[in-house]
Design a protein that fits this description.
Layout: H1 2-24, H2 32-112, E1 115-126, E2 133-136, E3 149-151, E4 156-163, E5 168-172, E6 186-190, E7 199-205, E8 210-216, E9 227-230, E10 242-251, E11 258-264, E12 273-279, H3 282-289
Antiparallel strand pairs: 1-2, 1-12, 2-5, 3-4, 3-12, 4-5, 6-7, 6-9, 7-8, 8-11, 9-10, 10-11
Helix pairs in contact: 1-2
């Protein structure tokens, strides 16, 4: 009831102001009651307008805040998707470069020698010093045979010493020992000096992580920094496989020959993928021709 009276009073007041405005007409000067009434009406209008404007601004700001929140949500989603896609792209780019390097290696080797390669994943590594082996996911059903050479794009890894239907075991060159009957010494030479250099890589020192190349002639041109490769002699290790780099050379037993210390080229601490070398013999070529 009270609110209704207030409302009626406001309506009457507004009508009064309107009638007074019409009655003023074109007069230049207003009476003091007219001035008082106009000022009072302006004050009342201001009193109602300010809260209304403030409330309207609050609702407008709330609407803007909600829109900003939605935009931030979308930006967060876009940023998360971008971060995920960047990681995925970088991983794929690294994979492509790594596989391209392997492909380039196999193509280069294929041009030099009559070899093919089978790509294999390392599924297990046994670091037991008495039975050190590397397990790969290729077996007899894939054409793998004992004594096939296993490499990475960086260098020689070892020989296949056991073949199962779907998996094979590889004896790494880090198992080389001149006193062990289970390992096969590697006939080696120096890249670029194949007709002048010769030696036998026959031992690995687990303390230093180095290979030993022995039976080197005192006239051999081998020097520090040379790349040691397989010579192909002995019909076990195919020719041209990188073994490592010469660290140093010194006089061997009895002072008749020299020995050299070799840093292996392959990274045995991070073996994840390897290549099995498939040599093509004359018999294979004849069978293909038929």
């Amino acid at each position: 009831m009270r609110n209704r009276r207030m409302f009626v009073l406001m309506i009457v007041f507004i009508l009064f102001v309107a009638v007074m405005g019409f009655s003023i007409g074109d007069r230049k000067k207003l009476t003091w009651p007219e001035n008082f009434a106009l000022d009072s009406s302006a004050f009342v209008q201001e009193w109602f307008y300010r809260p209304a404007g403030y409330i309207s601004g609050v609702f407008h700001d709330l609407a803007n805040l909600h829109a900003i929140y939605k935009e931030n949500e979308e930006l967060r989603k876009v940023a998360a998707a971008y971060a995920r896609d960047s990681i995925k792209y970088n991983f794929m780019d690294a994979e492509i470069n790594r596989l391209y390097e392997k492909l380039h290696f196999t193509e280069r080797q294929k041009q030099l020698y009559n070899y093919d390669y089978k790509f294999a994943h390392v599924v297990a590594v046994n670091n037991d010093p008495y039975s050190e082996t590397i397990r790969i996911n290729l077996g007899s059903v894939d054409g793998i045979k004992p004594n096939m050479v296993v490499v990475t794009e960086k260098g020689l890894v070892g020989l296949v010493n056991r073949v199962d239907p779907f998996y094979s075991s590889v004896m790494p060159i880090t198992k080389l020992s001149e006193t062990s009957p289970d390992t096969k010494a590697i006939a080696a030479t120096v890249l670029g000096k194949e007709t002048q250099s010769f030696g036998i890589v026959d031992n690995y020192n687990s303390d230093t992580g180095k290979l030993t190349m022995s039976k080197i002639s005192e006239h051999d041109p081998l020097t520090k920094g040379d790349t040691i490769i397989t010579s192909g002699l002995g019909n076990v290790f195919p020719r041209g496989m990188v073994i490592g780099t010469v660290d140093s050379s010194q006089v061997g037993d009895f002072g008749l020959t020299y020995t050299a210390t070799i840093t292996p080229a392959a990274d045995f601490d991070h073996l994840t993928e390897v290549l099995v070398v498939i040599q093509h013999t004359e018999a294979d070529s004849g069978a293909g021709a038929k």
